[in-house]
Specification:
The chain is an all-alpha fold. The chain has a domain of 90 residues: Alpha Horseshoe (Serine Threonine Protein Phosphatase 5, Tetratricopeptide repeat). 71% of the residues lie in helices and 0% in strands. It is built from 24 helices and no strands.
Amino acid sequence: MDNPVRWLRRVLVAALAGGVVAGLGLMLPEERPHKVVRPPAAGPQAQAQALTAVSSGVPVALPQLAALVAQQERRVRAQPQDARAWAVLGRAYAERGRRAADPEDFPRAERALRTSLRAQAANSEALEGMAALALARRDFPAAKEYGEQALKAAPNRWTAYPPLIDAYTGLGDYKAARTALDSLLELHTGAAARTVVMARASAVYQDRGWREDAVAQLTDAAAAAGTPAERAACMTGLGQLAWDRGDPQDALRHFEAAVRLDPDQPAAQAGRGRALAALGRTEVAFAAYRAALARHPSPRDAFELGELYEARGMAGPAREQYERVKALVRREVVAGVDEDLLIGRFEADHGNPQEAVARLRAEWQRQPGTEVADALGWALHRAGDDKEALTYAQAATDTSKGGVRSALYTFHRALIEQNLDLPAPSRRHLQEALRINPYFSPLRAPAAVAALRTLGDIPDEPPPGQAP
């Protein structure tokens, strides 16, 4: 299997030789036509709603996004010095790229947003767009920088806070995320802000371990949502919360509701596959993942499907998905997406753990979030350095400083402790992982059960892959 670090290096060298990377932010919309199916014509009211939603960070249906992009492209051609038109176009590109898992939209977004900033320096709408784009590219330091600049430019503008909260969370700074949320909640926001504000509150409450409050916030947000796309985003979040607490049946109910409301909810499509697999409906789960990838070719979803195939003993289809992961990651890296975390995870379990450690150490230095701590600790374990691995595993599972209770992170810590001949904490953390979510991974959950049996403990939970 070709090494992801080497194949990404070759991709970037080839891209630089062809002038692709150098010109990512310099392409006019007409120079790189986006291959989309033209949406039905949207009336003035629908266009106005989409414009308001994109400017506020509210979820928008993909057909409305496509119509808004077309509208704003016409506007900037007619008025090339219109800073706000360029900012809205950039936000729409970024959101469309995120929703459709199409990273080719990200360079377009960057060009539009930088054009807006050239037309009007330090305008908050473009700075917020740059923060949103950085989040879509998993560049949390840049998202923090642009978010703070946006807040400085317009201290009372509520839309600066949601991307800033996400940036702080991505950097593992849960205290700053909570402070930003408190400031947001103190502002007098209108009805358009309600779903966005409650969704961010739910995420912060989940990080604090307040699961009931997190569910309540998202439930209220779904009730207050003004469009199917908004409600679908809330239902997707509720499905994820149900999954995280080990309730695949409830998760499936919410994911399916989200897909009915908006078939272009990528996380809901993949969530259906995850929940169906946990309920033992493997063939339907395969179909759900394939449908999700057909609409939204996400490397993370391809990775999940590959591991599900591997867990079911289907080596050939698993290899195909892992090759697909590599191809999708190439595409994302060329578009400026930081995929070091995903590559590190892939290498740790399916490639060269030493390469994973090197990549994840650099990622930890740049953006030391909880996800990176867990991935680096696991990579070190896979590379044979359990002593250092434990320090990162402890950081990833230290909920006293914020951060979710994760079955996967807890399992990783347990196996590191087992290798260090620490049976008592290993047993405790294996039991905890299976209490949090006995279905957390088609590969790792059975390994947790097997490890407990080795320690002389058989868990009371049903085997992963069977309905509770």
